Protein backbone atom coordinates (compact mmCIF):
# COMPACT_ATOMS: atom_id res chain seq x y z
CA UNK A 1 0.00 0.00 0.00
CA UNK A 2 1.36 3.41 -0.85
CA UNK A 3 1.79 6.30 1.55
CA UNK A 4 -0.45 8.53 -0.54
CA UNK A 5 -2.85 10.74 1.35
CA UNK A 6 -4.11 14.16 0.45
CA UNK A 7 -5.30 16.78 2.89
CA UNK A 8 -7.57 19.46 1.48
CA UNK A 9 -6.85 23.01 2.51
CA UNK A 10 -10.32 24.66 2.60
CA UNK A 11 -8.70 28.07 2.20
CA UNK A 12 -7.65 27.28 -1.36
CA UNK A 13 -9.36 23.97 -2.16
CA UNK A 14 -6.07 22.38 -3.13
CA UNK A 15 -3.82 19.69 -1.73
CA UNK A 16 -1.94 21.01 1.26
CA UNK A 17 1.66 20.31 2.18
CA UNK A 18 0.61 20.46 5.85
CA UNK A 19 0.03 16.70 5.82
CA UNK A 20 2.69 14.87 7.85
CA UNK A 21 3.17 12.41 5.00
CA UNK A 22 5.93 12.88 2.49
CA UNK A 23 5.24 13.52 -1.17
CA UNK A 24 4.61 10.19 -2.88
CA UNK A 25 6.12 9.83 -6.35
CA UNK A 26 3.60 8.73 -8.97
CA UNK A 27 5.96 5.89 -9.85
CA UNK A 28 5.45 4.45 -6.37
CA UNK A 29 1.69 4.49 -6.94
CA UNK A 30 2.17 2.91 -10.37
CA UNK A 31 4.25 0.12 -8.84
CA UNK A 32 2.37 -0.50 -5.58
CA UNK A 33 -1.22 0.09 -6.67
CA UNK A 34 -1.15 -1.17 -10.26
CA UNK A 35 1.85 -3.24 -11.30
CA UNK A 36 2.39 -5.42 -8.21
CA UNK A 37 -1.27 -6.30 -7.59
CA UNK A 38 -1.73 -7.22 -11.25
CA UNK A 39 1.59 -9.07 -11.56
CA UNK A 40 2.87 -6.74 -14.27
CA UNK A 41 6.66 -6.43 -14.55
CA UNK A 42 8.45 -3.33 -15.79
CA UNK A 43 9.49 -5.24 -18.91
CA UNK A 44 5.95 -6.36 -19.68
CA UNK A 45 4.50 -2.89 -19.07
CA UNK A 46 7.11 -1.30 -21.32
CA UNK A 47 6.48 -3.85 -24.06
CA UNK A 48 2.69 -3.64 -23.84
CA UNK A 49 2.53 0.17 -23.86
CA UNK A 50 5.25 0.43 -26.52
CA UNK A 51 7.65 2.44 -24.37
CA UNK A 52 11.31 1.96 -23.47
CA UNK A 53 11.99 -0.08 -20.33
CA UNK A 54 14.24 2.77 -19.18
CA UNK A 55 11.22 5.10 -19.14
CA UNK A 56 9.22 2.75 -16.92
CA UNK A 57 12.22 2.08 -14.66
CA UNK A 58 12.84 5.82 -14.30
CA UNK A 59 9.22 6.49 -13.36
CA UNK A 60 9.12 3.61 -10.87
CA UNK A 61 12.40 4.76 -9.25
CA UNK A 62 11.04 8.30 -8.94
CA UNK A 63 13.64 9.96 -11.13
CA UNK A 64 11.46 10.50 -14.17
CA UNK A 65 8.13 12.29 -14.52
CA UNK A 66 5.02 10.90 -16.16
CA UNK A 67 4.56 12.82 -19.40
CA UNK A 68 1.31 13.33 -21.31
CA UNK A 69 2.40 10.63 -23.77
CA UNK A 70 3.10 8.14 -21.00
CA UNK A 71 -0.17 9.08 -19.26
CA UNK A 72 -2.08 8.20 -22.44
CA UNK A 73 -0.31 4.85 -22.65
CA UNK A 74 -0.78 3.97 -18.96
CA UNK A 75 -4.45 4.95 -19.12
CA UNK A 76 -5.06 2.75 -22.15
CA UNK A 77 -3.27 -0.21 -20.55
CA UNK A 78 -4.75 0.00 -17.04
CA UNK A 79 -8.21 1.27 -18.00
CA UNK A 80 -7.80 4.56 -16.17
CA UNK A 81 -7.78 8.12 -17.44
CA UNK A 82 -4.70 10.02 -18.60
CA UNK A 83 -5.82 12.87 -16.36
CA UNK A 84 -5.42 10.63 -13.32
CA UNK A 85 -1.75 10.01 -14.13
CA UNK A 86 -1.05 13.66 -14.92
CA UNK A 87 -2.80 14.75 -11.71
CA UNK A 88 -0.65 12.37 -9.68
CA UNK A 89 2.44 13.89 -11.31
CA UNK A 90 1.38 17.53 -10.94
CA UNK A 91 0.30 17.03 -7.31
CA UNK A 92 3.68 15.45 -6.57
CA UNK A 93 5.56 18.27 -8.33
CA UNK A 94 3.59 20.95 -6.49
CA UNK A 95 4.11 19.29 -3.12
CA UNK A 96 7.88 19.16 -3.74
CA UNK A 97 7.91 22.80 -4.84
CA UNK A 98 5.94 23.86 -1.76
CA UNK A 99 8.29 21.95 0.50
CA UNK A 100 11.36 23.43 -1.19
CA UNK A 101 10.31 27.04 -1.68
CA UNK A 102 6.73 27.61 -0.55
CA UNK A 103 7.48 29.59 2.60
CA UNK A 104 10.08 31.73 0.84
CA UNK A 105 7.67 32.48 -2.00
CA UNK A 106 4.96 33.46 0.50
CA UNK A 107 7.41 35.89 2.14
CA UNK A 108 8.72 37.44 -1.08
CA UNK A 109 5.72 37.54 -3.41
CA UNK A 110 2.99 40.02 -2.59
CA UNK A 111 -0.52 39.08 -3.77
CA UNK A 112 -2.26 41.43 -6.18
CA UNK A 113 -4.52 43.74 -4.20
CA UNK A 114 -8.18 43.22 -5.02
Automatic annotation (TrEMBL):
One of its GO terms (molecular function) is DNA binding. It holds the Pfam family HTH_3. Keywords: DNA-binding. InterPro entries: Cro/C1-type_HTH, Lambda_DNA-bd_dom_sf, Toxin_antidote_HigA. Residues 1-23 are annotated as: Disordered. CDD domains: HTH_XRE. PROSITE patterns: HTH_CROC1 (PS50943). Residues 31-85 form the HTH cro/C1-type domain. PANTHER family: ANTITOXIN HIGA-1. This is HigA family addiction module antidote protein. The lineage of its organism: Bacteria, Pseudomonadati, Pseudomonadota, Alphaproteobacteria, Hyphomicrobiales.
